[in-house]
Amino acid sequence: INTLVGGDKFGNVYICRLPQEVADDIENAQLLSVAAGREDTALNGAPSKADEIVQFHVGETVTSLQKVTLGPGCSEVILYTTLLGGIGALLPITHKEDLELLTALEMHLRQES
Q: What is the rounded distance in angstroms from the CA atom of residue 36 to the CA atom of residue 24?
């Protein structure tokens, strides 16, 4: 909840999330009522910022992003397509064992190249 996934024309995909206290303020409409009569907030930027969760360079311009479930009982993934016809997926790493395996694989591949 309160998470944004986006892409830009330079081939980057990013995920941002509102901090919990900001999300609570928005739900209570306190943040909007405080900033309603102040024009200086428009010049100084937003009163609160989103936290960047991840930024990934795809290498091609991303044309679509969808949150999908690839099968019954599977976790949701972010599926993207690119301008040149590429299809990719951003998968969450939910178990520490998977993270350790991928880290070891990355180190092994770096040594070979």
A: 18
Residue type, 28: N
Q: What phi and psi values does residue 26 have, to the nearest 5 degrees? A: -65, -40
Using CA atoms, how far residue 48 sits from 19, 63, 95, in Å, is 9, 28, 32
**Comparing C-alpha atoms, which of 45, 77, 56, 59 is closest to residue 6?**
56
Residues 87-97 have pLDDT tens digits of 999 988 889 99
Report field, pTM of the whole predicted structure over 0.90: no
Contacts of 102 (CB under 8 A, 6+ apart): 93
